[in-house]
Design a protein that fits this description.
Length: 396
């Protein structure tokens, strides 16, 4: 018997190219699902607290000089408006006023990043943003005066009523933005959010809907460190609120909210991202509320003066003014002119707010129900009778 037959196996020729291809196949890892969604590890900053420019960034180019000059002008007027509105509460002309002093870069920068055709969904703290957008300040303060409506025409001004319930505007913004995109318009909706509102269900529902349907929304979180008296550390353990978008597939970024140049640069990119059909974008601005939550709040119960003083040194207006003076965009004459304009603006507001509005007490019963209930009719007639009796006493 001969030797067993051994089948000859052809030799395998291995080339360097084949080795590289095989190595590449073995080392390939699944794509990172968070790629392109994660914010920067540190807030974007283009000016240091003293107003000195930091190295330029290709991802966030500096806005044009004329845009920064307009940003400065509106911030100065906005702060003067805010101070005047705070004074009006002490005079009894406003029922309540939530100040946004210290957050001027966020309030005004957001408005300059938008077109007039875009929509804004404000919270109760965005009065400064609305007057910066060009709304009549008396109309903006109408709701805070105690009236039953917001004072301005939301459809005409493409500005929703200031929202007192936390985070409900997140859902409204998502729905409107989706509807605009569905009809082929390139409208962007910007929703202002406080840090406390990110703990509300409506925030998560709104951002999830916007992500799934690629609604062109910018969710702008002004993290001013406190949800009334609750510090951020009691709101979340996340490294940044901007990270909350990752779980919904939403790109996010964090920015120094007291750096006006960086705020405008980041929001300009966020709005462009949404307008291009890439879906929503979440921006967190690290800022600080210098005044109490409202005129009815005692902020000394939950924060000390040293903390407030430390943030006062990061004043966004002083920061931008220093930078623009160094660049030759502003000089003493221009700064004085803006200050005079702000004083004139405040004087006009003060004069018009001092005029007593004409109010019909019976309007209290309007729009409670589509069809008034018997109890409501009874109450209205009771008030009508009391008013008539008071008028007769006055004539006697």
């Amino acid at each position: 018997m001969g030797p067993p037959h051994v089948q000859e196996v052809p030799a395998v020729t291995t080339t360097p190219q084949a080795v590289r291809r095989a190595s590449t196949r073995r080392s390939t890892t699944p794509p990172d699902p968070a790629r392109g969604l994660l914010p920067a590890a540190e807030p974007v900053r283009l000016l240091d607290p003293a107003g000195t420019p930091l190295p330029a960034r290709a991802d966030y180019p500096e806005p044009p000089a004329e845009a920064l000059a307009e940003l400065y002008r509106r911030m100065v007027i906005g702060r003067r408006f805010d101070v005047q509105a705070t004074a009006l509460t002490k005079q009894g002309r406003l029922a309540v006023y939530p100040s946004s002093r210290g957050q001027e870069a966020c309030q005004v920068g957001a408005m300059l990043a938008l077109r007039d055709t875009d929509w804004v969904f404000p919270t109760y703290r965005e009065s400064m943003a609305l007057v910066s957008r060009g709304l009549d300040p008396v109309e903006v303060l109408t709701l805070l005066r105690g009236d039953w409506h917001c004072g301005y025409d939301p459809a005409a001004r493409r500005t929703a009523p200031q929202c007192t319930p936390l985070a409900t505007q997140c859902v409204h913004a998502a729905g409107l933005a989706y509807g605009e995109a569905y009809q082929g318009r390139d409208t962007v909706a910007l929703a202002f959010i406080g840090d406390g509102a990110t703990s509300e269900g409506d925030f998560h529902e709104g951002i999830n809907f916007a992500a799934v349907f690629k609604a062109p929304v910018v969710y702008f979180v002004q993290n001013n460190r406190y949800a009334i008296s609750v510090p951020l550390s009691r709101q979340t353990a996340a490294p940044s609120l901007a990270y909350k978008g990752v779980g919904y597939g939403v790109a996010g970024e964090q920015v120094d909210g007291n750096d006006p140049v960086a705020v405008l640069a980041v929001l300009t990119r966020a709005v462009a991202h949404a307008r291009a059909g890439n879906g929503p974008f979440l921006v967190e601005a690290h800022t600080y509320r210098m005044e109490p939550h409202t005129n009815a709040d005692d902020a000394t119960r939950y924060r000390d003066g040293a903390e407030v003083d430390a943030w006062r040194d990061r004043d966004p207006i002083a920061r931008l003014e220093t930078y623009l003076r160094e660049r030759g965009v502003l000089d003493g004459t221009a700064v004085a002119a803006v200050a005079a304009e702000a004083e004139e603006y405040a004087a006009d507001l003060r004069a018009r707010m001092n005029a007593q509005p004409t109010v019909d007490p019976l309007s209290l019963f309007d729009h409670v129900y589509a069809e008034p209930t018997p109890q409501l009719v009874e109450q209205r007639e009771q008030v009508r009778a009391e008013l008539a009796a008071a008028e007769q006493e006055g004539d006697a």
